[in-house]
Amino acid sequence: MLEIRVPALKIKQGPDRELFSFSVKGKDIESIAAISRVKRKENELVGYQRPEVSTHIREIKRYLESDNPMIPNALVIAFDDRVKFEPISNGNNEFGYLIIPIAVNDEEKPGWVVDGQQRAAALREAEIGDFQMPVSAFITNDAQEQREQFILVNSTKPLPKGLIYELLPYTETKLAVALQKKRFPAQLLDRLNHGEESPMKGMIKTATNPSGFIKDNSILKLIESSLSEGALYRFRDPETGKGDVDKMLDIICNFWEAVADVFPDAWGVDPKNSRLMHGAGITAMGHLMDAISERYHSEEREDVTSYSHFKADLEQLSKYCKWTNGYWDFGVDKKVKWNELQNIGKDIQILTNYLLRKYRTEVWG
């Protein structure tokens, strides 16, 4: 196999981390590193990069083709162990050469771009001659480590949060506190969106499922709220923030399967045509799930609320719900047309309070 040799500096970071700093011709990048596009393959998450942004690439390309371009920010590339380092001096920081195989097919390239895909694309397309590009690289065969580095590099930049949320369940490294709190809820969301047992399979909009119509953030908020003080709380480990995934999924799936059967006309359609699929409806119904589960847990000491209990209570409540037509009767001078409810705090609170009040007075009470 053909290869290139580039002078490199090996930098030790911690007991087991090695980082390599070097430069390479911009046109050579595409021969040594591919873009790991985030997608689903047989229901498994593969890759981590978002799609290219053509306008951004054109802007970088124009700059590269200007009279005196300079790009000081290094690309970050993850190499597999086909890449070797030959030192020419000893010490914590070693000088030497990286021997990097080159290839035409993405599957045969030894590297993946972790950060800088738009710059890499611009370098590929621009007329730039021998323009040198700085690179920081690490060597690993672990796709999980590549995802973790991708999240750590990009979490402070304007990266789509949905992409980060979808990657989180496939990482284990310690992240910023805000991301740590999202990881377990994101794991449940991932199972809801891709598990065969889930009534929401394929319905949640994510980076790899753009055709979904339920916002991922609405489901995350539902899960986080229930973990904090709802039906999922009793299956949670307060020390780790994790919990019994199977029992939690049983509750969520039992509830939403019952919702789908009680409100068939409002289920599985675009949120424009059903406020049940809307952020306001998802959030309010999440609180109702917690309330119904509380009833049967307290009255019968039931571990996981069954589909039949959820369905029976929802049927009694259904006449008060106006998901696809009519007016919500929130009280005197508070009639709201079904499609005027918005995914804002005020409307969500009004709808939530209404459903819980009706449930406690007309069903449970």
TrEMBL record:
Q: Which InterPro entries match?
A: DGQHR-contain_dom, DNA_S_mod_DndB
Q: Which CDD domains match?
A: DGQHR_domain (cd16413)
Protein's name according to its UniProt entry:
DGQHR domain-containing protein
